Amino acid sequence: MENLIEYAPLLARGALITVLLALAALAMATVLGGLGAMGKISGGRIVRLLVFGYTTIVRGVPDLVLILLIYFGGQRLISIASNAVGLEYIELSKFWSGVVAIGFIYGAYLTETFRGAYLTVPAGQREAAMSMGMRPVQVLRAVTLPQLVRFALPGYANVWQVLVKSTAVVSVIGLEDLVGLANDAGKSVREPFLFFTAVFFAYLFFTWVSQSIFNAAEKRYALKEHGDAV
Amino acid sequence: MRFDLVAKNWELFAEGMWMTLQLTGLSVLIGFCIALPFGMIRANSNGIGSKLINAYVYAFRGTPLLVQLYLIYYGLSQFEWVRGSFAWVILREAWWCALIAFSLNSGAYATEIIRGAVQSVPEGELEAAKSLGMSPFKVNRLVLIPAALRRALPQYGNEVVFMLHGSVVASIITIQDILGVGRTLNARYYLAYEGFLTAAALYMALAFSVVFVFRQLEKRYLGYLRVSR
Question: Which is it for the CA torsion A127, A131, A136, A141, positive or negative?
Answer without folding.
Answer: negative
